[in-house]
């Protein structure tokens, strides 16, 4: 089971402290050393909206390459893709992740446009990115619920995905951590009616259901799960959204369930503790840093 490490992007974007580029590069290096092989490390967004990630190009120039590692960058529009394509090919990400928010109200607050307008942007960017040899993931954010309008129906998510066009992977995101395992199954069934691509999931543990949702997704055939070392992060545009499920805790759960991740849990926990200290956090959501691996 593949864990996608999103701490260097989704984790850092919600933290108050802005880390220097060298620390972000070291974060990626330590994550790779812990066994992670797919990492979302940059966001090509407006620096005034995401000052924590304003050095996207420099991070991508510095992260370690090779050893089967693939890097992902968040892209929100054509300008972001232009910045990627301006990089030397050896410094580009291997994939882009484009986010479309499931509800118009959240989409307006997050991206300044409606869901369908954002979807138009995805189709344009996805075509150009694939032509340039980049993998393309569409993430449907707030797929499990919206902080402003409430419940999101599975057929709403299905309609978005049906209109999206070509992609290499679809990620269903519980951006505010309201989902439960039954919804994972309902959404998976809904989107599989209209697309035949690998499914990935992104869970937050706001209401302590993130790990239950993750194991549900694993049993339903999702091929990848997002997590962040230490459980850092959240969504700066969603009220009260807490951190992602923690990489070290998720790796422990999956490894012990017979779903090998390739992640060395003690090394991952140590990296989670390290990034927490770099951010000046007194406590972390992750449990493995305190409880330890088993058997020890």
TrEMBL record:
<dbReference type="GO" id="GO:0004419">
    <property type="term" value="F:hydroxymethylglutaryl-CoA lyase activity"/>
</dbReference>
<keyword id="KW-0456">Lyase</keyword>
<dbReference type="InterPro" id="IPR000891">
    <property type="entry name" value="PYR_CT"/>
</dbReference>
<dbReference type="InterPro" id="IPR013785">
    <property type="entry name" value="Aldolase_TIM"/>
</dbReference>
<keyword id="KW-0479">Metal-binding</keyword>
<comment type="similarity">
    <text>Belongs to the HMG-CoA lyase family.</text>
</comment>
<dbReference type="GO" id="GO:0006552">
    <property type="term" value="P:L-leucine catabolic process"/>
</dbReference>
<dbReference type="InterPro" id="IPR043594">
    <property type="entry name" value="HMGL"/>
</dbReference>
<dbReference type="GO" id="GO:0046951">
    <property type="term" value="P:ketone body biosynthetic process"/>
</dbReference>
<dbReference type="GO" id="GO:0046872">
    <property type="term" value="F:metal ion binding"/>
</dbReference>
<dbReference type="Pfam" id="PF00682">
    <property type="entry name" value="HMGL-like"/>
</dbReference>
<feature type="domain" description="Pyruvate carboxyltransferase">
    <location>
        <begin position="1"/>
        <end position="269"/>
    </location>
</feature>
<protein>
    <submittedName>
        <fullName>Hydroxymethylglutaryl-CoA lyase</fullName>
        <ecNumber>4.1.3.4</ecNumber>
    </submittedName>
</protein>
């Amino acid at each position: 089971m593949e864990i996608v490490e999103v701490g260097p992007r989704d984790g850092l974007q919600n933290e108050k402290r802005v880390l220097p580029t060298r620390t972000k590069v070291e974060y990626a290096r330590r994550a790779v050393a812990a066994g992670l092989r797919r990492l979302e490390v940059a966001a090509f967004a407006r620096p005034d909206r995401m000052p924590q990630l304003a050095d996207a190009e420099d991070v991508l120039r510095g992260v370690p390459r090779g050893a089967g590692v693939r890097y992902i960058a968040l892209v929100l529009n054509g300008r972001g893709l232009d910045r990627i394509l301006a990089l030397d090919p050896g410094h580009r990400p291997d994939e882009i992740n484009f986010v479309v928010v499931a509800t118009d109200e959240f989409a307006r607050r997050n991206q300044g446009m409606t869901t369908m307008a954002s979807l138009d942007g995805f189709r344009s960017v996805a075509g150009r990115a694939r032509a340039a040899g980049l993998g393309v993931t569409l993430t449907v954010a707030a797929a499990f619920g919206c902080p402003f309008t409430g419940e999101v129906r599975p057929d709403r998510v299905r309609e978005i995905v049906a209109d999206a066009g070509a992609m290499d992977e679809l990620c269903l995101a519980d951006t505010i951590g309201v989902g439960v395992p039954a919804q994972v199954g309902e959404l998976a069934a809904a989107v599989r009616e209209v697309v035949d691509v690998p499914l990935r999931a992104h869970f937050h543990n706001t209401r302590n259901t993130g790990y239950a949702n993750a194991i549900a997704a694993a049993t339903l055939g999702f091929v990848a799960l997002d997590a962040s070392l230490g459980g850092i992060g959240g969504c700066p545009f969603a009220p009260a959204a807490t951190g992602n499920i923690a990489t070290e805790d998720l790796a422990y759960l999956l490894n012990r369930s017979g779903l090998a991740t390739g992640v060395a849990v003690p090394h991952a926990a140590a990296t989670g503790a390290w990034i927490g200290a770099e951010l000046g956090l007194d406590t972390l959501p992750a449990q493995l840093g305190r409880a330890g691996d088993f058997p020890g």
